[in-house]
């Protein structure tokens, strides 16, 4: 009888030890394993940081690298093979991973604002005011006057006749255009010139007190000045702008004598 009791006690003790072992084993299993595998494609920063060896910086890299088709793709987040192998027992790449790509709709915020001039439309070289031209990058008041004086333009490359360099023209091309209707505006000048019977009729056709603005006049209007023919008229246009009327003497072929003939007929205002 005593032996039976002794065996029963041993069995009870063994059962107690076995239960204690199971309980201890349960407490020592990783917390993450108890809660299930962490989904790399849906876990929050905090959930990722709870993983062994994953700090705030690594958690952000993992989120930035989504979606993942497999745990091994953690390499694209900068994790080493050793780190990935250490995480494999605790993480997974959920099948629903592609869904989070929907937030990529934030992309519309990414496009940078287009150049201010581009948003309002291209600037027409044949119709734009001097202020509109000055708003273009690299175009100051003097260059704007040269551009308006050189109208009409059949192409943007013709800005060269306004004295702009190839580099300046290339820089302006994305922001300017040549309107189709442009040629219909300047022809009015030749029509007025046609009223002048002969090139030598020039100054006599100017109204009393009328003066020609050498900064804005057309080639035909300049040709009306005494001693100024088509060649000198073109040279005057290419030499713009002028701060005072005496500056016209800088033009080749216009000396003191020619200047005295036209000084009362010209202005820079």
Could you characterize what this model shows?
It is a single chain. This protein has 269 residues and is mostly helical. The model is unreliable at 26-34, 96-119 and 181-204 (pLDDT under 50). The protein folds into four domains: 1-31; 37-99, Orthogonal Bundle (DNA polymerase, domain 1); 116-184, DNA polymerase, domain 1, CATH 1.10.150; 189-267, DNA polymerase, domain 1. The strands form three sheets. Strands 1-2 form a two-stranded parallel ribbon. Strands 3-4 form a two-stranded parallel sheet. It has a two-stranded parallel ribbon with strand order 5-6. The chain has 13 helices and six strands.
Key structural traits:
two-stranded parallel sheet, 4 domains, DNA polymerase, domain 1, 13 helices
Q: In a few lines, what is going on in this structure?
A:
The protein is mostly helical and 269 residues long. Helix content is 39%, strand content 4%. It has 13 helices and six strands.
- What's the tally of helices? 13
Summed over residues and divided by their number, the pLDDT gives a mean of 77
Strand content: under 5%
Distance between the termini: 134 Å
What is the overall silhouette?
rod-shaped
* The named CATH superfamily of the largest domain: Photosystem II 12 kDa extrinsic protein
Give the helix/strand class.
mainly alpha
Order of helices and strands: HHEHHHEHEHHHEHEHHHE
Strand order of the largest sheet: 1-2
Unreliable stretches (pLDDT < 50, length at least 5) are 26-34, 96-119, 181-204
